[in-house]
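Help needed: design a sequence for this.
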């Protein structure tokens, strides 16, 4: 039995973005509507942890057409290594 598995990649969305594409990327990965993901982040922001989680996700999630996350690019630049995508 041969099945075609498509690999989902956890990344920030380039097309469905409001600020940085984090919620759009999470929505595409999980199959949930992006508006619902955004509302969940707003609720968490009012509870005190949403902003931190959003910034952390922005740093750790690579953009849709890049191989490395923003944090990895910053670390590689700090170390003097080329940050090839």
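Sure. Designed sequence:
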């Amino acid at each position: 039995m041969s099945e075609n598995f498509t690999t989902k990649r956890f990344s920030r969305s380039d097309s469905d973005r409001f600020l940085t594409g984090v919620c759009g990327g999470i929505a595409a990965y999980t199959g949930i509507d992006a508006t619902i993901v955004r509302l969940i982040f707003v609720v968490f922001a009012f509870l005190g942890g949403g902003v931190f989680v959003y910034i952390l996700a922005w740093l750790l999630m690579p953009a849709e057409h890049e191989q490395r996350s923003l944090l990895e690019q910053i670390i590689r630049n700090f170390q003097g290594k080329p940050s090839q995508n």
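The chain has four helices and no strands.
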